[in-house]
Specification:
Shape: elongated
Radius of gyration: 40 Å
Number of strands: 4
Helix content: 55-70%
Number of helices: 10
Order of helices and strands: HHHEHHEHHHEEHH
Distance between the termini: 56 Å
Strand order of the largest sheet: 1-2-3-4
Length: 437
């Protein structure tokens, strides 16, 4: 008895774990899960972080640079040997002896230096690079928001595509039950000699066709759930789907709001403009300040120390590579501007097409509901006439086929209505299913 109780307790724990693992999944939860767990979006976020780090690097170009140098040397090269002793502040009269100058003994030294360099004027390169880096970081962030919205649209398609497949499976099972009932009825009539054997064989063939259809729909269900799991960053989704396929209300068509890809294209054009300015700055003079201090030791007590300060101007009066780079940067700026204009035109086209798709899906859904009502009434009448022996079986099967067609049309139109609405939100830059990134 104790073993049975332990077995029962373990079974309850496993059952509870299974139920908790199959909690209903709403489309909003699926979208948010995709945003946090999908590897593709994680890679996109890493690109955002990379662009931000690059922008910080461009911003810090204005800061001075500090270079520390530590060295140790052993040499008998004449010039270096004399210079080392001079830097060590221990030159004596004997060091000017030609024999010592021409053939010095090997000398050792150790020391170091610290140098601070500060750019004073760079022809606008630093400020332009800073602005270009900031624009590119903002553009990547906007692109990531767009990628999230595109992912949300794909989640909506996969989520409701799964529901369509499961509803189709339910209807196939209902059809199989109806066929089984018809087989029992017709089989009894055949045994009574009131119907032909051919009608029973026709029903069996229709039953086999429904079985094949069920196998196909089951494959679609498994594929849809696997695709939804891929988008949400998990394995195949196993639990029930909580959000209904049919929209509760019909909201008005949205107006254009925020589109991350358009914002990104505009920022990329601005960054290209700043890049062109930076490239032009390479042909201008630059002014820099350098401060330094150094020391060179022969021993801890014998050493030399020195400092220096310098302001210098450097100007590459002519550099063919820099001229070519400036020309290429101007071409990139023009390309970015034209791409921004094209994306704007493309967005306007997408909005027009998406609006028409939503309107068409709504009209298709209304027509499908009327077709289903008519097909169900036709089947009811034909089935009643068949049971009275006033109509052939083929009429009943045709009516059932019409119902299946109407069901398929309703599912398809509902799916298109929901997905096209998500596509319209994506085209206009509005939150898909009301979910903000």
């Amino acid at each position: 008895m104790r073993i049975n109780r332990r077995y029962l307790l373990a079974s309850l724990i496993v059952a509870g774990t299974s139920l908790s693992a199959q909690e209903p999944l709403s489309v909003v939860a699926a979208i948010r899960k995709a945003w946090t767990d999908q590897a593709g979006l994680k890679a996109g976020q890493a690109m955002v972080d990379s662009r931000r780090a690059e922008a910080d690097g461009y911003r810090d170009l204005r800061l001075p640079t500090l270079t520390l140098n530590v060295q140790g040397v052993q040499t008998n090269e004449p010039m270096m040997a004399f210079g080392i002793k001079l830097n060590q502040a221990r030159i004596g009269a004997m060091d000017f002896n030609p024999a010592s100058l021409n053939h010095p003994d090997a000398i050792g030294a150790y020391g170091g230096s610290a140098v601070i360099q500060q750019a004073l004027y760079t022809g606008g390169r630093i400020s332009s690079a800073k602005r270009a880096g900031e624009y590119m970081a903002q553009a990547e962030l906007a692109s990531q928001e767009r990628r999230k919205q595109e992912t949300a649209q794909m989640v909506v398609e996969a989520y409701f595509g799964t529901q369509v497949a499961e509803q189709a499976l339910k209807w196939v099972n209902d059809t199989r039950l109806w066929i089984q009932g018809m087989e029992d009825f017709v089989g009894a009539r055949v045994n009574q000699g009131l119907m032909l054997e051919s009608e029973l064989q026709r029903l069996k063939a229709y039953h086999a066709q429904a079985d094949a259809q069920k196998a196909e729909v089951l494959k679609q269900v498994h594929s849809a759930r696997s695709g939804l799991g891929l988008l949400t960053g998990s394995g195949p989704v196993e639990g029930p789907l909580a959000t209904s396929l049919e929209p509760i209300t019909t909201a008005p068509l949205p107006t254009t709001a925020y589109r991350g890809d358009l914002i990104a294209a505009d920022l990329q054009a601005k960054a290209a403009g700043e890049g062109a300015k930076a490239a032009r700055g390479n042909t201008l003079p630059e002014v820099g300040l350098e401060l330094g201090a150094g020391t060179l030791h022969h021993s801890w007590s014998e050493k030399g120390n020195w400092t220096w300060a310098a302001v210098g101007v450097k100007w590459k009066v002519f550099s063919a590579p820099d001229v070519a780079k400036a020309k290429a940067a101007r071409a990139q700026e023009r390309a970015a501007i034209e791409m921004r204009n094209f994306k704007q035109q493309q967005a306007e086209h997408e909005v027009r097409v998406a609006k028409e798709a939503v309107i068409a899906a709504g009209a298709k859904y209304s027509a499908a509901k009327e077709a289903l009502a008519a097909a169900e009434e036709s089947k009811r009448l034909r089935e009643a006439r068949h049971k009275e022996g006033l109509a052939p079986l083929i009429d009943v099967l045709d009516a059932e086929a019409a119902i299946q067609g109407a069901h398929t049309l309703i599912l398809q139109s509902l799916f298109e209505l929901r997905v096209n609405r998500a596509g319209l939100d994506l085209a206009t830059g509005n939150p898909i299913e009301g979910v903000n990134p």
